[in-house]
Amino acid sequence: MNPQLSKRANSLGTENAFVVLAEVNKLIAEGYDITSFCIGQPDFPAPMHVQEAGIEAIRAGKHGYTPSAGIMELRQAAAQYMGDMRGLQIDAEDVVVGSGAKPFIAYTILSTTDYGAGDEVIYPVPGFPIYESQITINGAVPVPLYLREARNFAFDPNELEAKITPKTKLLILNSPQNPTGGILNKQNLEDIATILRKHPQIWVFCDEIYSRLTFEGSFASLASEPDMQERCIISDGASKTWAMTGWRIGFTANKALAPAFTKWVTNTDSCASHISQWAAVAAVSGPQHDAEMMRAKFLERRNLIVKLLNEVPGINCQASGGAFYAWPNVTELCKMTGLNDSEDLRRKLLYEAGVAVLADIHFGHRVPGDGQHIRFSYATQNENIVKGVERIAAWVGKNRR
Q1: N or C: which end of the chain has fewer CB within 10 A?
Q2: How is domain 48-285 classified at the architecture level of CATH?
Q3: 3-state SS, residue 330
Q4: Dihedral (CA of 111, 114, 119, 122) sign
Q5: Distance of alpha carbon 249 from alpha carbon 9, whole angstroms
Q6: Which backbone phi and psi does 149 adopt, to 5 degrees?
Q7: 3-state DSSP assignment of residue 24
Q8: Where does 62-170 have alpha helices with state H?
Q9: In 3-state terms, what secondary structure has residue 269?
Q10: Per DSSP, what are the bridge partners of residue 95?
């Protein structure tokens, strides 16, 4: 008999995109032809000058540990980059580099809440599943804030205000947003800032990893609102903008929390990859035409998949304001095909139509009154988008009642 796992380990959540991806890869290995929309990563290579910078770093012997907060060249470049985008002055000393942007979710919760003290964290639903997982596992209380389809997948400021209590320590914002592709516009951010000024005890984690993939209007950050920068943890990184998911480089800026984040990095990863940090310097500081090309391609794909999905009976799909996700409402499609919910639909599409998507339950509780949804990542070629939606349409034609 083996020793038992802790309750914490047994209750740890996961990111279902990777779970479904494993399911898809197993089917492909068994010979099934699957068109996959389940994983959220750019399908482009990293820009050539970024690749060359990584190779040069290897050849130059940059193989050892770096300071836990990152090499100063990258901290300076990231401070300039994030500040310029948001109209802010950010000092290099306020920036901490990590092994991707994801660890900063945990570092922020660990740095702003105390285990078992009843401290509350408000987070978006539907949302990146690691938010709720890390809130729970680190002993805080998760408080969902619903993103509503009628508000273009923003939330009602009145709902935010109603959920704030004296125990609220952290608010998580994500814009552009995974999984809906929704964005928080300037008016949304002004409304949020007005509420937060009444509650000075609340930190804000601004997950802005998709900042360069904004399609509707221009990108805006809560940190740019008056009196907000000091309490905002600005989180960005190299993964989505420069197609560097596997290079594992994220960077976060906040003057007060930078020393704590540095200690968390020391306690966990020691430092981000030395080689990847030099590649990220080239990404952030170098030519941006590849990043702009990728954004243009994602916008083209968004327009294509939204058009095609809206032609399928039972599907209603809003155009996402950013990121590379479509979040169609499939309530009518479930009714038309006699299915209980979006998870039933997801499994039918995978095993009967050969199309891999994610269901809304992979991103938290369903939003009350908003029906059923599935997520498509359109980080794939146009021909795959066409083929995948054609397969769905054919399946609907066979199975509608």
Answers
A1: N
A2: 3-Layer(aba) Sandwich (3.40)
A3: coil
A4: positive
A5: 26
A6: -60, -40
A7: helix
A8: 72-86, 103-112, 129-137, 157-163
A9: coil
A10: 253
If we measure between CA atoms, which residue out of 160, 217, 149 comes closest to residue 194? 160
Please state whether the predicted TM-score (pTM) of the whole model is above 0.70: yes
Residues in the chain, overall count: 401
Distance separating alpha carbons of residues 115 and 180, to the nearest angstrom: 31
Per-residue pLDDT of the chain (401 residues; tens, 9 = 90+): 889 888 888 888 877 777 777 888 888 899 999 999 988 889 999 999 999 999 999 999 999 999 999 999 999 999 999 999 999 999 999 999 999 999 999 999 999 999 999 999 999 999 999 999 999 999 999 999 999 999 999 999 999 999 999 999 999 999 999 999 999 999 999 999 999 999 999 999 999 999 999 998 899 999 999 999 999 999 999 999 999 999 999 999 999 999 999 999 999 999 999 999 999 999 999 999 999 999 999 999 999 999 999 999 999 999 999 999 999 999 999 999 999 999 999 999 999 999 999 999 999 989 999 999 999 999 999 999 999 999 999 999 999 98
In the structure encoding, which two tokens stand for residue 205, read together? 């984690």
Sign for the pseudo-dihedral over CA of 380, 385, 386, 392: positive
Residue 88 near residue 82 (C-beta atoms within 8 A): yes
Residue 124, judged by CB atoms within 10 A of its CB (0-12, 13-18, 19+), counts as: buried
Q: Which residue has the tokens 């092994």?
A: 99
Distance CA(247)–CA(237), nearest Å, equals 11
DSSP-derived letter for residue 201 is T
Determine the 3-state secondary structure of 301 from DSSP.
helix
Q: What is the CATH number of domain 7-45+290-399?
A: 3.90.1150.10
Q: How far is CA 116 from CA 55, 140, 141, 167, in A?
A: 46, 6, 8, 12
